[in-house]
Write a structure and sequence with these properties.
This protein is an alpha+beta fold and 271 residues long. It has a single domain, classed as L-fuculose-1-phosphate Aldolase (3-Layer(aba) Sandwich). The protein is built from eleven helices and nine strands. A nine-stranded mixed beta sheet has the order 2-5-4-3-1-6-9-8-7, sandwiched between helices. Strand 7, helix 9 and strand 8 form a beta-alpha-beta unit. The radius of gyration is 19 Å and the shape is elongated. The relative contact order is 0.14. The structure holds Dihydroxyacetone (2HA) and zinc ion (ZN).
Length: 271
């Protein structure tokens, strides 16, 4: 099936694989479909699948359709066999159940992180109706930092911002951090969606990262920007525990006017 959405979804999975962020079946991707995109698939919908529990409640997403990677599926394989790896699901009238209507042709279920994806997509829809993508990956450098930095939003945001001038411009709202938790359920979904109410990046300690975006390029680009800065920080910390030079609080303040961004002073503390 030749389709722009399939192309863009696949590109993200393949690019993440090529970055080394998706060992085995690690990571997952979800997209809240536009009505006209749903129509492009409707002729090949099947309606015989059971309604299953999401495992949480997302009432603001009732009757919406989502394209999601499958549980246990490998990002590596999305470009090779899309209809085996990816599903289109619809959420029921109550926002508590879903039904597979397309894809996963050899069986299976949506991503094990479906509660987190849908809870994030719900708060994002309320924040900005055009925010449609949630992407989860396991990039090594940001995960490495969760072993050595305090698990605090202020510290992660500031340390990552300092690594590249572009960072506060790309994610001026900063980074939220979730302490280690059992993945795959409602509890971690609640914590992550709390972050997504105001921020576009959530780090899961000793696990990975969640980002959102209006489109696939934006979501992928955000993951890439944070991970690149994390890589620089890992290199810096590997060379020396202290920095001789860095971007200072007033330098960040000076970025606000030319780049039309507002940076919360809580990130601009004196060290
Ligand atoms: O295996 O990344 O968090 C998929 C995951 C679970
Ligand atoms: Zn994961």
């Amino acid at each position: 099936m030749e389709n722009r959405l399939i192309r863009d979804f696949t590109k993200t999975c393949t690019d993440g694989w090529l970055q080394g962020w998706h060992e085995r079946n690690g990571g997952n991707l979800s997209y809240r479909m536009r009505p006209e995109e749903v129509e492009q698939f409707r002729a090949s919908f099947r309606n015989d699948e059971p309604w299953r529990e999401i495992g949480t409640e997302v009432p603001a997403l009732k009757n919406e359709y989502f394209m999601v990677t499958g549980s246990g599926k490998y990002m590596r394989n999305v470009s090779l066999d899309f209809e085996d790896s990816v599903a289109v699901i619809r959420v029921d009238e109550t926002g508590t159940k879903y039904q597979i209507v397309w894809g996963l042709v050899n069986g299976g279920k949506p991503t094990s992180e479906l509660p987190s994806h849908l809870m994030n997509l719900e708060v994002l829809k309320q924040r900005d109706p055009e925010m449609r993508i949630v992407y989860h990956a396991h990039p090594a450098n940001i995960v490495a930092l969760t072993f050595v930095l305090p698990l605090k939003d202020e510290v992660f945001t500031r340390e990552i911002w300092e690594m590249e001038t572009e960072c506060p411009v790309v994610f001026p709202q900063g980074i939220g951090v979730v302490e280690w938790m059992v993945p795959g359920g409602k509890e971690i979904g609640i914590k992550t969606s709390e972050i997504m109410k105001t921020k576009n990046v959530a780090v899961w300690a000793h696990h990975g990262m969640f980002v959102c975006g209006h489109d696939f390029d934006e979501a992928f680009g955000l993951m890439h920007t944070v991970e690149k800065a994390a890589e620089i920080l890992v290199k810096v910390l590997s060379m020396s525990p202290t920095k001789l030079n860095t971007i200072k609080p007033q330098d960040f303040r000076d970025l606000q006017e030319p780049f039309n961004i507002v940076l919360d002073e809580k990130y601009l503390y004196e060290k």
